[in-house]
Design brief:
This protein has one domain: Growth Hormone, Chain: A, CATH 1.20.1250.20. By secondary structure, the chain is an all-alpha fold. The radius of gyration is 23 Å and the shape is globular. This is Major facilitator superfamily (MFS) profile domain-containing protein. GO terms for molecular function: monosaccharide transmembrane transporter activity; symporter activity.
Length: 499
């Protein structure tokens, strides 16, 4: 058996060409774990379509419905209502609060059980939301969904990164974001189908959130825990058996010894949350947090949450706005496939820098069209409206193979094992915090900033591109347990933080 010491990890003296063979069992495990992304995506896509349905507004937000019917409604302000925005954003506040609890459960009981808990909370939330008789019941349902999102978004990316091979880690982890985009497309399709089912179409839209939750529930029962988590729980024999199953080969001694050595090192560090504040832990914490902030300040979730509302604002009618949202959802799914194939070939930094240029140009052009052509009342001429749709699709196209999937991938792979669950929880909670802020503020921002909101997001994208150029290290092809030696200690800026 290969003997690997902690000192070998610290000095980077490890052969990383571990034998592996792609097999059905590993693919099934990855597919079931990625269903947590399907849950998350379905919720992102469903809320915008539901809030544009008249029957939903009449029951829960009659003031918004009356404002929508006014003859000379303000295009930018007709949906500006804090309670309506709370319907969308409450989920992310709950996800923020639950992410650190999910971190503790993930570390103590494993990734698999955390995903099982996520599915149960999501099933409960789907039932409460679809059966809601008042605003209180509706918000409680959203909070339950939020806890499910917090648990799922913590455990699933870690599961994928810890079970993927070094050469395919980018592609495998991006399955999470691919399933997010599939969930959004699924939600947009459901909203289009239920928009004509008067009185209770919105109930069906919200209730079908149980479908991805059920898939995750089934998967969480049948898949195995990650080898890293099993070693953390002192189940070494089982961990080695699972590693053999996932790799599809018998010769896993070298890789398993590296996992054991990394965990041995982690046991010498007490208090992972406290350890996050140490100087040497700051680089992955800062990068993981900044990526989550940047991901939200691209403006993507403002577009995906409120796509039907946005397209109504620029002149598409109700069904037309839902079709437009369906188109952007379709573009989102197809474009994410680009990241699956390129993340481990072109590298993370290249994709982030190129996409920043495309997204910046798209946001600026959309802003210019709206400033010059969309007044407070009336709608855009047809040509300009379709031009906006084209550049929204171009923006979604660029985001889907860059800041979307890589915003989850990079934080899941850059923390050492001793701070991995706590560090990733910090990243997830940052994502949920700023998702909440954008979801709660976007419609009000659009009312007060009008078309200027697109220039606001484009300014952030410019900053993001510069940070990707100068501060983001490349993690392509580096084993997950060797990030400190091969990434952080080699970077021109971050190496000064390392011991």
């Amino acid at each position: 058996m290969t003997s690997i010491r902690v000192a070998d990890i610290e000095n980077g003296r490890i052969n990383v060409n571990y034998p592996s063979k792609l097999n059905c069992y590993a693919v099934v495990c990855w597919g079931f774990a990625a269903c947590a992304g399907l849950m998350f995506g379905y919720d992102i896509g469903i809320s915008g379509g539901v809030t544009a349905m008249n029957d939903f507004l009449i029951k829960f937000f009659p003031d918004v419905y009356r404002r929508k019917l006014r003859a000379r409604e303000d295009n930018y302000c007709k949906y500006d209502d804090q309670k309506l925005q709370l319907f969308t954003s409450s989920l992310y506040l709950a996800a923020l609060a639950s992410s650190f609890l999910a971190s503790s459960i993930c570390k103590r009981y494993g990734r698999k059980r955390t995903m099982l808990g996520a599915s149960l909370f999501f099933l409960a939330g789907a039932g409460l939301s679809s059966g809601a008789q008042n605003i209180c019941m509706l918000i409680i349902g959203r909070i339950s969904l939020g806890v499910g999102v917090g648990f799922g978004n913590e455990a699933a990316p870690l599961f994928l990164s810890e079970t993927a091979t070094v050469k395919l880690r980018g592609a495998i982890n991006i399955l999470f974001q691919l399933f997010v985009t599939m969930g959004i497309l699924m939600a947009n399709s459901v909203n289009y189908g239920t928009s004509g089912m008067h009185k209770n179409g919105w109930r069906l839209s919200l209730g079908l959130a149980a479908v991805p939750a059920f898939l995750l529930f089934v998967g969480s029962i049948f898949i195995d825990e990650t080898p890293t988590s099993l070693v953390e729980q002192d189940k070494e024999a089982e961990g080695k058996r699972v590693l053999r199953n996932i790799r599809g080969v018998e010769d896993v001694d070298a890789e398993f010894e590296q996992i054991k050595a990394a965990n041995e090192r982690a046991k010498q560090v007490k208090g992972s949350l406290k350890n996050l504040m140490k100087r040497s832990s700051l680089p992955p914490v800062i990068i993981g947090t900044v990526l989550q902030v940047f991901q939200q300040f691209t403006g993507i979730n403002a577009i995906m949450f409120y796509a039907p509302v946005l397209f109504q604002t620029v002149g598409f009618k109700n069904n037309g706005s839902l079709v437009s949202a369906l188109v952007t959802g379709f573009v989102n799914v197809l474009s994410t496939l680009i990241a699956v194939f390129l993340a481990d070939k072109a590298g993370r930094r290249f994709l982030l820098r190129l996409s920043s240029v495309i997204m910046f140009v798209s946001q600026v052009i959309i802003g210019i069209i709206l400033v010059t052509s969309l007044k407070a009342t009336g709608s855009l001429p047809e040509a300009q409206a379709y031009t906006v749709l084209i550049f929204v699709c171009l923006f979604v196209f660029a985001f889907a193979w860059s800041w979307g999937p890589l915003g989850w991938l990079i934080p899941s792979e850059t923390f050492p094992v001793e701070t991995r669950t706590a560090g990733f929880a910090f990243a997830v909670s940052s994502n949920m915090l700023f998702t909440f802020i954008i979801a709660q503020a976007f419609l009000s921002m659009m009312c007060h900033m009008r078309a200027g909101i697109f220039f606001f997001f484009s300014a952030w994208i410019l900053v993001m591109g510069l940070c990707a150029q100068w501060l983001l290290p490349e993690t392509k092809g580096v084993p997950i347990d060797l990030m400190v030696e091969r990434v952080w200690k080699q970077h021109w800026f971050w190496k000064r933080f390392m011991d």
